Amino acid sequence: MNDQIHKITNNEWEIPMDFVPGMRVPGRFFLSENLAETLEDGALTQLANVATLPGILRYSLGMPDIHWGYGFPIGGVGAFDAETGVISPGGVGFDINCGVRMITTPLHVSDIPDMKGIIEDLFTAVPTGVGSKSPIRLSQNDLSSMLEDGAKNAVEMGYGMAGDIPRCEENGAMGGAQPEHVSKKARQRGIPQCGTLGSGNHFLEIQVIDDIADEATAKTFGVSEGQICVMIHCGSRGLGHQVCTDHLQILESATKKYGIELPDRQLACAPLSSPEGEAYFGAMAASANYAWANRQIITHIVRELFVKKFQVDYEEMPLVYDVAHNVAKWEEHEVDGLRQKVCVHRKGATRAFGPGRAELPHEFRACGQPVIIPGSMGTSSYLLAGTQGAMEKTFGSTCHGSGRVKSRSSAKKCQTGEEVAHALLEQGIIVRAPNQAAIAEEAPDVYKSSSEVVQTVHDAGISRIVARLRPLGVIKG
Amino acid sequence: MAIEELEHTADIRMRISAPDLSSLFSESGSALAKTLYGDYPFETPTVSFSIEAEGKDREELIVNFLSELLFLTETEYLVPQKFTLTVGDSVSGTVEGVLFDRKKHAGGTGVKGISYSGLSLTGTKTGYELIIIFDI
After folding, report:
1. Which of the four pLDDT bands, split at 50, 70 and 90, describes residue B84?
2. How far apart are CA B108 and CA B105, in angstroms?
3. How far is the alpha carbon of A357 from chain B, nearest alpha carbon, in Å?
């Protein structure tokens, strides 16, 4: 660890204000001693650079899955004052509202004797990888509705149940969406891709709950040991990527226009109250809504297949929750004893609201928000709950996954896709992807240990473990 | 001319060198296509698209050019095979290719955007060198 960094507690570290010139607040990040070895200098500098942005409140924050990103590090969180603060695509990322959701089923492992068969059927049913096309044909008007209403729009089109909506962060549609700031190009990319999984670290995984840490909360979330669940991780596809590309250019010019000094061009930003800042927010919110609709449509495809294959009722596969990873949102938080409206950027981080928040479905208000943390193909995923500690320390945020530690090129040099798939099969995990390289690049050992990352956020008190899920079959994009 | 993949934890980082700017832009287009589609066979092009981009400087020009190419790959299902480009203060020309076929071209990974992170476009003794990250 860099000798300028101070240890605050066992899992919490501080970057002092003189780490890079112009820091307005210190940095704070959460890493166990073991994970501290994985911290890249580039990520540390990015975390410090974020602290130079106008209007940043309290700390530039890093979660234990922190790694080198674009502008903000992945695993970065920053909250900005409504009047003096800025908004930056570098704090959201190219894949706006990349996120994850989890549905439960009434099935147990013994109910799925042919895991390979169901994975193959899912791979055929859910368009996956580069060049995949949507199963539905959207008109421009359909797309506009989707950009406004997100998951609700998908449900209205027949892709899901009304009960899914309150189980999504923001009820599956952020307010303030302005489809008019989504370019024609972004629309052209979005129309053929709605209901597609994408590639890279996006996945669809069948899992079994193999350990319950908190019976009462697990019951509230509707999960129990031995239950088969499905996790879906994807985002806003080309539409969101294009919105980021388009608005980065606008905000680059705006940065100069508003006289904002930046240590890094990738932190291009504009005041929250400026026309450029508001336009980006409106387009970003519209993209976030598209992403919620995208995950909703994929959920529907999965449920339909399970109904057909296992004779379960569609309604027996409720959504536990859906969380956003890459997004900037208006939220109310207590800052220096005063409750105020702030814009929270989460870049590869998960909202983890604690008990009592009005944004949560009534049934979850006493225990805190469900937090879904995926592992890698061969490692456990976790269901956690948001905590009061997160409200106090991290603007209601926690980690979003494990965080990569090895490049794709070195991963491919270590093992072929066939070798990785074979090793996973020996552990009872079926993996399917459009190509073998995709499997090699996402091998379990290219990520930090999901268990260690999750234990760190649990120990730091910024979310608490409820259940552990073991992978059985996975589709990689 | 050369395309070399460099180490990067999360994304794809490429070093591309070429004797002149037009070749550098063509090679960078090929590097993007290789990332998207893996090592795919050369075929006689069956489709052709014009491509244009502008930028305040050469760095913005290459980012905008590659963003345009990415747009064509996603909306037209274009797999590039051949570039014919004129590069000066702006870039214009054509990109010829074939249409995406999962059997031949599904060997790569999606690119979300062209990053300014660590971007450098420099003159060398033998031409130009570009280091660029594709956000995946």
Report:
1. very high
2. 8
3. 34
Helix (H) or strand (E) holding A291: helix A275-310
Residue of chain A whose alpha carbon sits nearest to that of B136? A200
Q: What is the pLDDT of residue A57?
A: 98
ipTM: 0.94
Give the tokens for residue A267: 């932190």
Helices A237-257 and A275-310 pack at an angle, to 10 degrees, of 170
Going across the sheet that includes B78-87, the strands are: B47-54, B90-99, B78-87
Three-state DSSP at A290 gives helix
Q: What would the DSSP string read from start to end of B70-134?
A: HHHHHHH-EEEEEEEEEESSEEEEEEEEEE--HHHH-SS----EEEEEEEEEEEETTEEEEEEEE
For residue A343, give the DSSP letter. Answer: E
Chain centroid to CA A27: 22
**Which helix (H) or strand (E) is A60 found in, with range?**
strand A60-67
Measured at the alpha carbon of residue B24, what is the angle toward residues A69 and B9, in degrees to the nearest 5?
20
Disruptive mutation site among A74, A130, A239 for chain B (greatest number of B CBs within 10 Å): A130
Contact criterion met (CB < 8 Å) for B10 and A69: yes
**Predicted TM-score of the model (pTM):** 0.97
Give the count of beta carbons closer than 10 Å to the beta carbon of residue A454: 28
A277 forms beta bridges with none
- Cβ of A131 and B9 within 8 Å? no
Q: Which residues pair with residue A270 across a beta bridge?
A: A87
The closest alpha carbon to A27, from A61, A71, A4, belongs to A61
**Which residue is associated with the tokens 């501290």?**
A36
Handedness of CA A407, A409, A414, A417 (dihedral sign): positive
The whole-angstrom separation of Cα A396 and Cα A398 is 7
